[in-house]
UniProtKB/TrEMBL annotation, chain A:
Originating gene: dsrP
Protein name per its UniProtKB record: Redox complex linked to DsrAB, transmembrane subunit
Keywords: Cell membrane, Membrane, Transmembrane, Transmembrane helix
One Gene Ontology cellular component: plasma membrane
Membrane-crossing residue ranges in chain numbering: 12-32, 52-72, 84-105, 125-148, 160-181, 201-220, 240-263, 283-306, 313-335, 355-373
Highest taxon of source: Bacteria
Organism: Desulfonema magnum
Subcellular location, principal: membrane
From TrEMBL, chain B:
PROSITE patterns: 4FE4S_FER_1, 4FE4S_FER_2, TAT
Chain's gene name: dsrO
One Pfam family recorded for the sequence: Fer4_11
Origin: domain of life: Bacteria
Sorted UniProt keywords: 4Fe-4S, Iron, Iron-sulfur, Metal-binding
Domain 4Fe-4S ferredoxin-type stretches: 160-189
Protein name from the UniProt record: Redox complex linked to DsrAB, iron-sulfur binding subunit
InterPro entries the record matches: 4Fe4S_Fe-S-bd, 4Fe4S_Fe_S_CS, DsrO-like, ET_IronSulfur_Cluster-Binding, TAT_signal
UniProt cross-references to NCBIfam families, sorted A to Z: DsrO
GO molecular function terms listed in the Swiss-Prot or TrEMBL record: 4 iron, 4 sulfur cluster binding; metal ion binding
Species whose genome carries this gene: Desulfonema magnum
């Protein structure tokens, strides 16, 4: 099936060349980072995780959201999603790959990466994060590949794939839960020290991932002969609606606990993010934008006529995606580090090289996603023809 | 025919991957066995003079450390002994802000409100308000940094010291997120650029970029029967000893003085006690 990824129109190759160029630039800057160390990033002694780890966190969610297609399709026998489940699984593959790359670019000594395997430490959540992320990547590769191949040959997928599909459901939940456990089990970090963190992560994931998928479906319909389907997009829209409402609800649960209990170590991070602390507040406009976008999207999505119109739905999806991205990709990580455990306020702002490397990693994700989607869509077109 | 060839290629490809993938693993097993065989002949003996304990602990008497001047020699002694780079010591002042972000500290001074943020109050007495506090790794009895390390590069030794293997650390900085005392520093850049040859202590390794480091309670000095460098430089303001030895100096001080510890409520069991 891979041969389908090297056949295509000029536009396809032009796009791939462009993405490769972006990756190339990112890679060059990464080599610079390898040589001179993480000093070229904006991270510091106080904010020791930054943009890379934040993107990892966000993308784990996008990856996990494939389960929002797998559950209706395979557990509830919702046939309509059979058309697009593969797209969710391939989106998961691209996202998990980016996650793993973001871990690697964040390491101070990436050549020692395999120490995690040579000296396995089950007590460390990072060890488990590695296990579940890699496991999820392989599950989706195997499932996606076999299901698509069966579709191409117009036969049912091999029987042994079914158990793997069922396994992928809790596994998807596990990847984002474990990622939340990276943060919420740390004693001195009030912003993360909350049992609602994993549920918050999952709800924002199940909003962000399907939103991206809706946008991708609309794009696919425009540029290919394959139509992911009106009903499919509408079903996704309902999932997004529930998930984004839950996400904002969980956030308000957190806000209530923090501000009604009035415990300073928990409040200070929220104050820093939403009002600024001791004159520092680079993230304040972003956080309000994030909350505003999420609430705006809820208002749009709960109105049936707005949700059913694909143009306004697309706008709502962009709002969901942007809102949840700012929340996780910007606020979640540095918000936990500011103020630091000694109550010093040292802010974090990513540097240009850091952003270029980040874009490079996203480029790899886009490259993989394009190739996989190209493959899937070509087969769908082939089967339809 | 077509499908047979496809199948063959698939199997061949997977097998090739399998062989290529398995080789380093097999090698690793082989070298581990060799290592074990070598270890069997080597007996690791402690220096006869080595100091031992169940849990090393420290009592800092802040009554004897009144000013910045009193702390300076202590900090200097530590940082010199352990080749801790002074990244602020450059002629190029325009990089100062950058350097500030990358500073490496094993032991340093903080105001009361930062050392004890949960105990601080607006109406603090003047002495504490202005008193500089020495802070360092607490060598916790229940250290969160050890719990989170994915490679066991940070580990708790049998004498309670939370130690680091600079050669195993992958630089993931999970330990920095886990430490509630901000005791850990990361080498964002090559630290050796900031250590002048004439200042370097050849007895202790320098680090490379990309690894985390922190106070090691002078494990290398205890091993040869010496007290930690900061204790030696403190003129008796810092006491060091076994927390579980009722006869030790630290226990005597804890018995006769009211002491506080940093963020005791988190359950980490910090082993640095402060007499205030």
């Amino acid at each position: 099936m891979l041969e389908l990824t090297v056949k295509g129109s000029k536009k396809y190759f032009g796009w791939m060349a462009l993405v490769l160029g972006v990756i190339g630039i990112g890679f060059c800057v990464y080599v610079w980072q390898l040589i001179s160390g993480l000093q070229i990033t904006g991270m510091s002694r106080d904010v020791s995780w930054g943009f890379y780890i934040a993107q990892l966190t966000f993308l784990v969610g996008v990856a996990a959201s494939a389960v929002m297609l797998v559950i209706p399709h395979y557990l509830h026998n919702y046939k309509a999603f059979g058309r697009i489940t593969i797209l969710g699984e391939f989106l998961a593959i691209a996202s998990v790959t980016m996650c793993l790359l973001f871990v690697i670019v964040d390491l101070g000594q990436p050549m020692r990466l395999f120490n995690v395997i040579l000296h396995p430490t089950p007590g460390s959540v990072l060890f488990w994060d590695m296990v579940v992320l890699n496991g999820y990547l392989f599950l989706n590769l195997i499932i996606g590949w076999n299901v698509l191949e069966a579709e191409r040959n117009q036969v049912p997928p091999p029987g042994w794939v079914k158990p793997l599909i069922y396994l992928s459901v809790p596994w998807a939940v596990s990847i984002h839960t474990v990622t939340a456990f990276l943060y919420c089990g740390l004693p001195g970090r009030g912003y993360w020290l909350t049992a609602i963190l994993a549920p918050r992560f999952l709800s924002s994931a199940f909003a962000a991932g399907p939103s991206l998928l809706v946008l991708l479906c609309l794009l696919i319909r425009k540029i290919s002969k394959f139509d992911p389907g009106k009903e499919q997009i509408q079903s996704l829209a309902k999932i997004i609606t529930y998930a984004i409402i839950l996400n904002v609800f969980f956030f308000f649960c957190e806000l209530f606990v923090v501000f009604y209990s009035q415990i300073p170590e928990h409040m200070d991070h929220f104050k820093y993010l939403f009002t600024g602390l001791h004159g520092h507040g680079v993230l304040v406009p972003w956080m309000w934008a994030s909350l505003g976008l999420m609430i705006f999207s809820i208002i749009m999505l709960v109105i049936p006529s707005v949700r059913k119109n694909e143009t306004t739905l697309a706008i709502a999806c962009i709002a969901v995606f942007a809102g949840t991205w700012i929340d996780k990709g910007m606020g979640m990580i540095s918000g936990g580090f500011v103020p630091n455990p000694l109550h010093h306020v040292n802010e974090y702002v990513p540097t240009v090289p850091e952003l270029v490397i980040t874009i490079g990693v996203y480029g790899i994700g886009v490259l993989i996603l394009t190739a996989l989607f190209k493959m899937a869509i070509s087969i769908k077109e082939e089967v339809a023809a | 025919m077509e499908s047979n060839r496809r199948k063959f290629l698939k199997v061949a490809g997977i097998s090739a991957l399998g062989i290529a993938g398995a080789k380093p693993v097999l090698n690793a097993f082989a070298s581990e066995q060799e290592e074990e065989a070598q270890h069997a002949d080597v007996e690791i003996r402690k220096n006869e003079k080595a100091l031992t304990a169940r849990q090393w602990a420290m009592v800092i008497d802040t009554r004897k450390l009144q000013s910045e001047e009193d702390l300076k020699p202590i900090i200097e002694a530590c940082h010199k002994t352990h080749n801790v780079p002074d990244v602020m010591d450059t002629e190029n002042a325009e990089y100062d802000e950058d350097n500030q972000r990358h500073v490496i500290k094993w032991i340093w001074e903080e105001e009361y409100k930062h050392a004890f943020p949960t105990k601080s109050t607006e109406f603090l007495d003047d002495r504490l308000k202005n008193l500089p506090f020495l802070v360092l790794c607490n060598h916790c009895e229940n250290p969160p940094c050890v719990r989170v390390c994915p490679t066991k590069a940070t580990f708790k030794r049998e004498d309670g010291i939370v130690l680091m293997d600079f050669h195993r650390c992958i630089g993931c900085r999970f330990c920095m997120a886990a430490c509630p005392y901000g005791s850990r520093s990361f080498n964002f850049r090559d630290p050796r650029e900031f250590i002048k040859d004439e200042d370097r202590n050849p007895e202790f390794p320098t680090r490379m970029k990309g690894v985390v480091e922190k106070c090691n309670f002078c494990a290398e000095r205890l091993a040869v029967g010496k007290q930690p460098a900061c204790v030696e430089a403190s003129n008796g303001a810092i006491a060091f000893g076994d927390l579980y030895d009722p006869e030790s100096e630290v226990r005597q001080l804890l018995k006769s003085n009211y002491t506080i510890r940093r963020k005791q409520g988190l359950g980490t069991g910090p082993a640095i006690y402060y007499i205030v």
